[in-house]
Amino acid sequence: MAFFESEIVQEEAKRLFTDYQQLMQLGSEYGKFDREGKKKFIDTMEELMQRYRVFMKRFELSEDFQAKMTVEQLRTQLGQFGITPEQMFEQMNQTLTRMKTELEQDSR
């Protein structure tokens, strides 16, 4: 079975996409959240990034041609911005860490 024909892969891709869209829509109101709301948003974003990282690792480890091409396309697209997928994840983690630090400072 081809990588993209897997029901598990299709379901997780759909869940990741839907969850990400909902979180980004919710995030547009981040400044209006109370402390607990901000904490929950950050935690949910961290969880989503971890799920995405695992999902991408499946692509990287797959022997499927389409999966390998998808990884290469991502690398090419990010390369146009001068970053690698690893750097993208690191930047996301730095942003979430900064958000946590700001939240801790605001609570003092």
Automatic annotation (TrEMBL):
UniProt superkingdom: Bacteria
Database matches in InterPro entries: DUF1825 (IPR014954)
Name assigned to this protein: DUF1825 domain-containing protein
Lineage: Bacteria, Bacillati, Cyanobacteriota, Cyanophyceae, Synechococcales
One Pfam family linked to the record: DUF1825
